[in-house]
Every structure is written in C-alpha cells, then in structure tokens.
Amino acid sequence: MLNVNNLTCGYANKPVLTNINFKLDRGDFVGVIGPNGSGKTTLLRAMTKIIKPYSGTVSFNGKLISRMNFREAARNIAVVCQEVNPYFDISVEEFVGLGRIPHQEKFAFIETKEDERIIRQAMEMAGIVKFRKRSLKNLSGGERQMVVIAKALAQQPKLLLLDEPTVYLDISHQVYILDLIRRLNKEQKVSVLIVLHELNLASEYCQRLILLDNGSVEKIGTPQEVLAYEIIERVYKTTVVVRENPISHKPYVFIVPEEEKKNISKA
What we know:
Blueprint (H helix, E strand, L loop, with lengths): L1 E10 L2 E11 L4 E5 L6 H8 L7 E6 L2 E2 L5 H7 E4 L11 H6 L15 H14 L14 H14 L4 E5 L7 H17 L3 E5 L3 H7 L2 E6 L2 E6 L1 H4 L2 H8 L3 E5 L6 E5 L12
Parallel strand pairs: 3-8, 3-9, 6-7, 7-8
Antiparallel strand pairs: 1-2, 1-4, 4-5, 9-10, 11-12
C-alpha cells in the first residue's frame, strides 16, 4: 500500500533524513520512534507533501503521492498532526464535518444524510459527542486533539498517519485513542503509521517499529527486535532495563536514574 523508497529530505537544502526505505501493507500498524531530532515529524511531512523530497519517492497503491491532487489524497490518507490550534471559530461538529469534503461532489455545500451519519459516528468513536456544539476555541489542547482525530475518522481513510496523537492526553485518553486506532486497524483494515514518543505505548500497540536515529533507519522490526536494551541505550544515550510485560508479553522499557545505575543487572 505505502512504499517509501530511498527518501532523502530536509529543510533549506540541509538533509534531515537520508535514504529511508520501508513499506506498509494493508492492515499494518507501524510505529515510528526515535530521539528528539531524529526526523520522525519530517518523515510524515515528506509523505504528505508539506516538504518536497530531495530525492527518492513516496507512493500509495503504486502512485506517487506527489502526483495526487488534494481530493484523491484526502480520500485515501488522513493525517493527525502533533500540534492542534483553534484556527477557526466553528463548532466541533462543523470541524469534524470538514473531513467529508474530499468525498463530496464539487460545489456541494450541503451534507448528505450519509455524511451526517458518518460525522456522528466519528464523533461517537472519538468520544466527543457531548461537546459537539462547543466552539473549537473553547476546548483544551487534549479535547482539540480528540476532535482532530474524529475529523480524520470522518474521512474514512485507507491509511492513517499520526504524529504523536497522544501528546496532549492523559493516560486514560491515551489508551482510549490508541485502542480506537487499533480497532479501526483490525476491523476496517485501516493501515496505520504512527509517530510515538512513548516507547512503551509503541511496544504495546504496534506490530512493527521503525527506529530512526540521526536521520537514518537504525532498525526495523517487531517490538521485541527493536526494543532490545542494547539498541535503546545506544540510540537514546541513556541506561534502561527492558523486561517482558506479563500481560501482553511485549517488551517494557524502564529508565534507570543515575543514582540507581549501580544497582542494576542486565541479566
């Protein structure tokens, strides 16, 4: 479905990412992790035409994304950005409704009954029906993030790109949103590429991980393959202990404060 081939990109003629290669198939749930400045957000910007690659390609179902128009791209790919600002003084329901624009006929300014059903369903799934009439300006950062996710759901995408969607959310809402995304992934076969800062959330929810470091791919594999303590310590320059979650059997990364290092054993 998604093919990133020898992608090199950056800003002001200064590369941030170099020779990035990976693929996503239909139904994949892949996480992008890495230290600050490793190029995670830049990768998503290159994939969504916000920045133009210096070289290499990004294609969706065999077609270059750079050659897709807005309507074609938005019918297939939805993006949830890291920073959410209240640009418009419109209601939550109206904002979520913007997700239906790519599916409407040109110059069709009235939502159909089907559009209304999909918008309502998206708000219900994101848990925001209760404040659907409130202005976007009057929401907290976490609430706005949930609204943006609902707008993405209203697009009914085949591919969902998310840049740290849980960054403003408390732990209960983090789990709620990631459970929702995983349900979409499993039940509707929506492919997911998600940038996550929290290694343990990435471990629990993602089938595969792409670990970036200094603008290159350090490792691609399952959470068990990528979140080995030797790899994490080398990339993040910090001491960790990795153990198995007794419930999910996924790796769990524990940080080790400086004063506790003398007490740890890697065995």
